[in-house]
Amino acid sequence: MYTVKIGKYLLFCLLWSLQCAASENDTTEIYPDIESTPLPLLYPQGRIVNGNSASDGQFPYQVSLRYNGYHTCGGSIISANYVVTAAHCVKSLSPSRLTIRAGSRLVNSNGQIVGISKVTTNPSFRGTGNDIALLKLSSPLKLNDKVKAIPLARKDPPSGAAVVVSGWGRLGRCSRRTPKVLQYTTFTALTKEQCRRRLFWVSPTVLCLAHPFGKGACNGDSGGPAVYKNELVGVANYVVGGCASDLPDGYASVAYHYNWLKKNSDL
C-alpha cells in the first residue's frame, strides 16, 4: 500500500509539473499526500475550478471565513448565531483573529462583517475524518434576502444526485488569478461503496462528490457548502489527486454529524 502511494505521488508530481509549465509560467503547490489532501489554510487559492459566477443573493447561506481580514475558507450560516465550516480551517486559531463576511457574492466588499466569539471543533477530528467545526458569532447576523440560514440534512443525497457547491479563490490549478465573485458548480453524489471503489477507502464521516476532470474544489474552498434540495449536505474537506482531478472530493457529511451540530449550536 505504501509503495503504491509513493508511486502515485511521484507520477502525480511529474504530471502536475508538466501541466502547469505548459499552461503558464507559475509556481504551484505539490500536494504531500495525493490520497487525501486537506484543502490548505491561509492562502486565497480556493475556488470552484471551471465554475460559474453567482448572481447577487443566489447563495445567501454562504460566508467567507477570514483570518486577519483575508479570505481563507468558506462556511455556511445555520442560524443567526452560528456558522459551520471545516475543522482544519480553524483548529488552533484564536477566535479573536477570525471574522466572517456574509450577504455578499464579492469576496472583499459589501455584506456584513461579524466576529467570532467561540470555535468548537469536532472532538473526533483526525486526518480526514470528522473534519467539521462550529463558529459562534460575536453578534447575531441580520437575516434578510441575502443572509439566510440553511437547514441541515438528516440523510445523505442519493447516488447520482446533483449537488451544488460554491466557493472563492484561484481560477485554476496553475493560475494566480482569483475571482472577486463567488463561483459555483454541480457535482454528483456517490454512495460510500461507489466512493470506496474509486478511492479504496473513505471515512464513514465523509460524503463523496464526483466531478469530471477539470472541475472540482480547490485550496481555500475548505469549509464551503454542498447543497441538495435546499439543505446543507456537506462541508468541503479535501481533494484527491490534486484540485480538479477526475477523482471524487471529500466533504464532511452533515447527516452523519447532525446530532453533534444540533447539540453544539442553538438549533
From TrEMBL:
Residues 48-266 form the Peptidase S1 domain. Gene3D superfamilies: Trypsin-like serine proteases. GO terms for molecular function: serine-type endopeptidase activity. Keywords: Disulfide bond, Hydrolase, Protease, Serine protease, Signal. InterPro entries: Peptidase_S1, Peptidase_S1_PA, Peptidase_S1_PA_chymotrypsin, Peptidase_S1A, Trypsin_dom, TRYPSIN_HIS. SUPFAM superfamilies: Trypsin-like serine proteases. Residues 1-22 form the signal peptide. Pfam families: Trypsin. One of its GO terms (biological process) is proteolysis. It comes from the Eukaryota. PANTHER family: AT26814P-RELATED (PTHR24276:SF91), POLYSERASE-RELATED (PTHR24276). Belongs to the peptidase S1 family. This is Putative trypsin delta/gamma-like protein. The lineage of its organism: Eukaryota, Metazoa, Ecdysozoa, Arthropoda, Hexapoda.
